[in-house]
Each structure stands twice: as structure tokens, then as C-alpha cells.
Amino acid sequence: MKQTITSCMLMFACTFIGCKSNHVALNDIQVIGSHNSYKIGIEQPLYDYLHTLEPKKMESLQYTHISLEKQLNLGLRNLELDVFYDPKGGHFSSPKGLEIVRSLGQEPLVFDMEEKLKQPGLKMFHVQDIDFRSHYLLFKDGLKALKKWSTDNPEHSPIIILINTKDQKVPQTRAPLAFDKSALNALDDEIKSVLPATQLITPDDIRGDFESLEKAILNKGWPSIKNLQGKFLFVLDEKEERIQNYIQGHESLKGRVLFVNSKEGNPKAGFRIVNKPIKDFEYIKELVSKGYMVRTRADAGTKEARTNSYEKFEKAKASGAQVISTDYYLPSTLFRSDYKVIFEDGTYERIKNK
After folding, report:
1. What is the pTM of this model?
2. Which residues contact 61 (CB under 8 A, 6 or more apart)?
């Protein structure tokens, strides 16, 4: 059985590598990626305590990930990163969750021994004070890990990274700083400080000589996978108000690093986030048929893993969405479940059937 699986994976690798010379475009592939990819699960004493207060909420947070590099080694080609603004440093240095664990008479797991959170710059974790453990507390360190992996694997197919900018207030936790225009500029700046232009797929690259990004996508389409090897494409997954702040002074995303989740029919449209593949199945199919890139989800809030339901995943695949996100590219290690999101051939990346 092991030999059969290995043979299938090798056959897929040869087929996919072959596609790079056949001008298969970026929107012709389908990849499985991870949601909140940096996240390390909440330690058990804190989880148990918070579960007594808000059981449903805490169960939705009961997932964890291996490192970004290990995910990429598995074959995932989509990641999602959450960032908080902290230009002076130290705003998130003392999570309340550590004190809660101590108040329960236990010693918390080691946390931020290098005092990364005291450094100025964007931070990367899920929820302040509650769900604060991360493989990389500094956004820039996460980017450096990705760059190193890319350098070690220079012919990798493009990696699509969604960015959520976090400033939501959560009751009884430290108020985050507003993710304003300065913060959005810092997001571009930190990416460019780590990844050179030669490793980025930007709106300018795709727009070319067209009047707008959307016109380029609808008329010329996306580049071939072969021409995008070794590169990263970033998408700002936010609502329209924040998107407008990001594009202010950058019409049609000129000069910006990130694509944006903007509704079709405007100059900045090109990449859509449509996370309900059952409800929005026909809508996703329509977007894909026109040439847009679409990200959807196979599961959310641990629900599918707890019920072993693949309905969303099946619809996501059938919709043609190029990016399918999951918390379970590997089965859960935090509760009993066999749920695992992977393509039938044992891979996380494939060419779509046309």
C-alpha cells in the first residue's frame, strides 16, 4: 500500500512538473491550504478554563498547525496569516492567558523567551490574550522562514498567502491598535523588506499595460505556472472599508504588494474570497469561469472535523475554486477525528479538469 501511494505521488509530481512547460495558468490549478497557518493550539489548562466559560467558542478554536515550512513540505501552497500592528513594540508582551494558567496553580508553557513581542513591528497570532501562541510571533520572522524555504526549493509552484489585519476588540482582553493607513503601509514594507520583487507576484505584474487589473485578468488572464515558479502572491482578505484605505493613492492597486478581496466589476478586482461553497456554489463557478481566482473553505470552526462531514470540501472541489482552505490537512491531534482534507490522489495540489 505504501509503495502504491508513493508511486501515485511520484506520478502526480511528474504530471504537475510537466504542466509547467505546457503553459497551464495559475487559475487552472487547485490547491489545498491552511487557515490561520501560524497557529499553535491553546495550552490545555487555559483551554479547559475558558471552555467552562464559553464552550462553543472555545471548541471553534481547538485546532493547531505544524510549522509553515512543514506545511509547505507536505505540499500545501496556500497559507493564511493574521497580523497586528505594534509599531513601538511591547503592546502584546504579557498575554493574560499566562496569568490565568498561573492562577490555576500551574506553570504555563514557555513563551516568547527571546522577547520578540517587545520588538517593534507587525505581530502574528490569532486572538490577543487568549489564542496567542504562534510558530512566529513576528510577521517578519514568518516571512523569513518562507523565504528560506523558497530558496531551498526554488522551483516550487506559486504560494498564495492570505492576510487578515487584526484590530478587533475582544471583551476582557487588551485592545489592539487600529490597523490604519500607516499599518497597511507597514504591511507592504515588511513584505518587501524580506522578499525581493523577483519573488513577488503583484497587481502591477498582472495588470501589465492594461488600464486596470480586472481588465487584464478578464482579457489576458493569469500567467503560466512556469513563469511563477518560486514566487509568492499575497491577498488582503478584508472588508471594503479597509480595502479602500489600502488602495488610497494606489488606483487599481498600482504600486501595492497585495491583491484585495474586492467584488467583481471594479478596477481592483481579481481575487475573491467566497467561503461558503455550498451556499455560493453557482456564484463561485461563475467567477471561476470568467477568470477570477477564488478562495473558499472546506471547513470552519472545527465543525466538519467533529462531524466527519466532507460536504463542503466536495462542493469546494466541484466549484472550481482555485484555493481550498482547511484546518485539517492532517487529522486533529486535539480531539478524536479521522477528518482529513486532501485530494483523491494523496496530494494537495492538482490541475483542474476543464
Report:
1. 0.94
2. 42, 47, 126, 127, 130, 131, 302
Residue 23 has a pLDDT of 81
Tens of pLDDT, residues 31-66: 999 999 999 999 999 999 999 999 999 999 999 999
Radius of gyration of the chain (CA): 20
The 3-state secondary structure of the chain reads CHHHHHHHHHHHHHHHHHHCCCCCEHHHEEEEEECCCCECCCCHHHHHHHHHHCHHHHHHCCCCCCCHHHHHHHCCCEEEEEEECCCCCCCCCCCHHHHHHHHCCCCCCCCCCCCHHHCCCCECCCECCCECCECCCEHHHHHHHHHHHHHHCCCCCCEEEEEEEECCCCCCCCCCCCCCHHHHHHHHHHHHHHCCHHHEECHHHHHCCCCCHHHHHHHCCCCECHHHCCCEEEEECCCHHHHHHHHCCCHHHCCCCCEEECCCCCCCCCEEECCCCCCCHHHHHHHHHHCCEEEEECCCCCHHHHHCCCHHHHHHHHHCCCEEEECCCCCCCCCCCCCCCCCCCCCCEEECCC
Cα–Cα distance measured from residue 109 to residue 88, given in angstroms and rounded to the nearest whole number:
26
- Positive or negative CA dihedral for 175, 181, 185, 191? positive
Rounded-to-integer distance, Cα 249 and Cα 234, Å: 19
What does each C-alpha distance from 227 to 19, 45, 93, 128, 253 come to in angstroms?
Answer: 12, 48, 42, 39, 21
Residue with cell 476543464: 354
Q: Residue 30: name the closest of 261, 276, 287, 347 by CA.
A: 347
User: HSE (CB half, 13 Å, CA atoms) of 81?
Assistant: 29
| Residue 244 neighbours by CB under 8 Å, 6+ apart | none
Angle ∠(103,107,112) on CA atoms, nearest 5: 110
pLDDT at 354: 56
Place of cell 482578505: 237
Q: Which three cell numbers stand for residue 294?
A: 477564488
CB 272 within 8 A of CB 287: yes
